[in-house]
Amino acid sequence: MVSNRKILIVPDKFKGSLSAPEVADAIEEAIKMRAVHISEVEIEKVPMADGGDGSLDIMYTALSKDTSSRAHLMNVKCCDPLRRPIKAPILLFHNNGEQCAFIEMARCCGLTLLKEEERDPLKTDTFGLGLMIRAAADAGAQKIIIGIGGSATNDMGYGIWGEEGSMSPEEIVRMCDNITFQIACDVENPLLGPNGATMVYAPQKGANWMTLPLLEQRMELYAVKAQSLLKRFGGEFAVRATHITTIPGGGAAGGVGSAFYSFFKAELLPGWQLFSQILSLEEKIASAETIITGEGRFDSQSLSGKLIDGLASLCRKYGKRPAVVCGESLVSPELLKKHKIGNVYQLMDICPDRQTCISSAKILLKGTYPTLVEVGCDEAGRGCLAGAVFAAAVVLPKGFSHPLLNDSKQLNANQREELRDIIEREAVAWSVASIDAQEIDRINILNASIKGMHKAIDDLKNSCGEKVTPSLIFVDGNRFKPYGKTPHHCIIKGDSKLSCIAAASILAKTHRDEYMQRLAAEYPQYGWEENMAYPTAKHREAIALYGLTPYHRRSFNLIDNQLNLHI
């Protein structure tokens, strides 16, 4: 009996594009599409987070798979950063015999809860977080884990204490004395100074150059008040008072990191480390044959305490190298070797346009495998004075390459014809369409070019005559109209960047040249066999001498005092 091979998928989010679960799902689907013996492959997905937006969902999804965790969500009454009443969930679960609670600070104090014009760290505070902590304590939590990313606040956690007449700091500290706190904190910024909470993060929360000095001054007063309170508490609190402004990570979430370290004796941990402990990541790595991780932008910061760095360190313990899937990789081979990173797969290798990688990340992740149908489109004859505009659509087989394949304008006629034969013979599907001069005059050349591309896509068929539907459309230039619901992206000078566009350029050009050769035989006086109806001096002179043919584009600036050729 063949034992199952285990593939562990542990991605972070592709920021601005896909959530971590969406990345994991896309990678899983791609693996299933290409695996020869899929029944022998066990795939386990463990999407990861850093404590910011989406962290609670990831925790809940992962823990729900383990019935012993008894994971469930509890909605509590709290408030947003401006103290407007809202309800937000707390995740309650059991871990190693402890009743635990996970709080995502962004759910009550997050920047995304505010309209852009409402963002002002002089007005926002962490009162909502205090309400959630009290709710977790009332629910019997022995350990409270808080992801503090994505906050809209800069109050050093003073909002937690509440308003006049509510619980005092001493009462809250006593209430939480038997509770262990862990804080997911991925930054090392201190509380004060040029690298502190205010100067680095407050501008992202709505502060400007006029309010920054006031916010920093207020933070200094918070720190002095906190030190006074801590010294009054005595013991370990008094010791921590001396580190309150310098503790690495103290500046996280507008000083919340410092508040929890000082008053709640919390452990500040990198987000990946905290999540890996809860989700038993090391055990999963130990039993996996292949580990795949990833994020949108893979750079040196990724290997400086972030998820991929932490994951790689766990893999090294078991002699394994994680593969990395990313939108773009900026990591040197030397750094990859140092951290023992395996293969790196970047979407930019599929599509060198960054915006496409962001907007179409899901389909590109799946598209690293044969099921993705990428069609390249280009036109020929747009700038001509006569004749139809030709458009081509080409789907190349995966891995297709040819040393001559480039922008058709950079090749001579013989090279283009050589490539035409190869492309038409080896392409998965190809089609060429044309829009005549009369239609160009009626709808203009831009719309005619796009119409031609749409028509070419409509007519795509494989060698068996079966219609081919594209998954993603790449267009040379900067203008296109949506083709149904199929994602598309325009790439300036795309014929020199993507093989499928270059192939379309070849077909459009060669088919149009063939067409113009036929017209040249009918109207030899215009020199179309050489100029292909482009606005050369000879062509314009011929128009002036002989007038216009039925193939000339009347909407174009041909010559002054245009004449009609009567035939």
Largest sheet: 6 strands, mixed
Mean pLDDT, all residues? 87
Strand content: 15-25%
Main-sheet strand order equals: 3-4-5-6-7-8
- How many domains, in number, for the residues? 3
| CATH architecture grouping of the largest domain | Alpha-Beta Complex
Annotation, overall tally of beta strands: 16
Helix content: 25-40%
**What is the CATH superfamily label of the largest domain?**
Glycerate kinase, domain 2
Q: Structural class from helices and strands?
A: alpha/beta
Low-confidence stretches: 563-567
| Radius of gyration based on Cα positions | 32 Å
Shape: elongated
CATH topology tier name of the largest domain: Glycerate kinase, domain 2
- Total of DSSP H or I helical runs spanning 4+ residues: 21
N-end to C-end Cα span:
83 Å
- Give the CATH level 1 class of the largest domain: Alpha Beta
Provide structural commentary:
With 567 residues, the protein is of the alpha/beta class. It has three domains: 5-45 and 280-366, 3-Layer(aba) Sandwich (Rossmann fold), CATH 3.40.50.10350; 55-274, Glycerate kinase, domain 2; 373-519, Ribonuclease H-like superfamily/Ribonuclease H (Nucleotidyltransferase, domain 5, 2-Layer Sandwich), CATH 3.30.420.10. The chain has helices at residues 20-34, 55-64, 106-109, 127-138, 169-175, 197-201, 212-233, 236-241, 252-263, 271-278, 281-287, 307-317, 333-338, 354-359, 361-367, 413-426, 437-443, 445-458, 499-522, 528-531, 537-546; strands at residues 5-11, 41-45, 72-79, 85-95, 98-104, 143-147, 180-184, 267-269, 290-298, 323-329, 344-346, 374-380, 389-395, 429-435, 472-476, 488-491. The protein has a six-stranded mixed β-sheet with strand order 3-4-5-6-7-8, sandwiched between helices. Helix 5 links the parallel strand 6 (143-147) and strand 7 (180-184). It starts with a strand and ends in a 21-residue tail after the last helix.
